[in-house]
Amino acid sequence: MSGRMNSDGEKSSKSRIWGSDIIADALREQDIPYVCLVPGASFRGLQDSIVNHLGNETPKILVCLHEEHSVSIAHGWAQVTNEPLAAIVHTNVGLMHATMTIFNVWCDRMPAIIIGATGPADAEKRRPWIEWIHTSIDQGALVRDYTKWDDQPGSAAAAVESIRRASLLSRTSPMGPVYINIDVAIQEEWVDKNPAFFDLDQYRPPQPTRPSATDVDAAYHLLARAEKPLILIGRVSRDETGWSDRIRLAEAFNAGVFSIYNSGGGFPKSHALHRGVLKLTIDDAAREKLATADVILSLDWTDLGGTVEQVWPRGEKLPNIINCSNDFHLHRGWSMDYHRLQPATLRIATTPDAIVSALLDKCEQMHHTHPASAGLRRRSGWSTRSTF
């Protein structure tokens, strides 16, 4: 325990613990490896606790030059790991700096835990001038339209629950950034009782909803009867099993595959079934390949309506479209990041990994394979095992 003074200028007794120590413990409980920050006075207590109470380990501080850098590092980490980092921003001004990158995390549907701070809500505890301009009411309103959830806990104990909920919500699909605003006075209060910690298993996110048997059957039969099925691989996980399963599914139906430029891949570009990487504007070569499809399986494709309309203008007959996504849970009124509403033969509210796994199970049940699959594996140099 450090020898800090609390907000009333009094030194803590050894029988008590700083509020910020409890908040730091809550970050460690969630097994967050790093916290990205530009040092700021509004979270001086929490910063002190990470260094002196936690020993600057789990989380370890990554000192940044700008709040946009802090959130961008968390964004990049999430893109690779599908897990959140914490980024701490300095009161209202730091949050203003960070808004652009928080919006980027939101649009990318990535997890991130953004922790902010504010001058004391109790006006009697504010230092002259500086803590007045660094105190604002409903600070979370600055980012509420592009975060999954925000909170301003009223005590250190309440901050523990906020961090647990933030971690849970951020990592639950569809993922996104969350924001917690912590009063500087709460960080510097004395707390007599430290909550029970380090039972992470009780705060893990739920598994994605498994698609119904009816939906899986319908999707399977559409793909099995298709002559030229096509898979659009959008926002998918970095999970190794998910990667292998997508290859197996494409081979099972001899389906062409397009990936999207901003998703990080999701399918090997050297595979014989990979048809290309699509950008916002589809060129003539890609349009010709897309136009041959009689069934499209969309795996959380970003702007499915915009893509389809460039190939089949409104009024033209569409192929059968299986739209697999639960992104609609995040659709609101402020941002139009939900794009054009695309008609679909079948809508399945689940994640790409869940539907791909379910379809592979159905293929195994039906003893389904495609005559070309063995040759595809040899040509592509991928899995040498039988598809099932």
Structure report:
Mean pLDDT is about 90; it is low at about 385-388. This protein has two domains: about 15-205, Rossmann fold (3-Layer(aba) Sandwich), CATH 3.40.50.970; about 215-380, Rossmann fold (3-Layer(aba) Sandwich). Helices cover about 35% and strands about 15% of the residues. The protein has about 400 residues and is α/β, with parallel strands linked by helices. A six-stranded parallel β-sheet has the order 3-2-4-5-7-6, sandwiched between helices. A six-stranded parallel β-sheet has the order 11-10-9-12-13-14, with helices on both faces. α1 (about 20-30) packs across α2, α3 (about 65-80) runs parallel beside α4 (about 90-110) and α8 (about 215-225) packs across α12 (about 350-365). It is built from 13 helices and 14 strands. β12, α11 (about 305-310) and β13 form a beta-alpha-beta unit. The chain has helices at about 20-30, 45-55, 65-80, 90-110, 130-135, 155-170, 185, 215-225, 240-255, 285-290, 305-310, 350-365, 375-380; strands at about 15-20, 35, 60-65, 85-90, 110-120, 150, 175-185, 190, 230-235, 255-260, 275-280, 295-300, 320-325, 345-350.
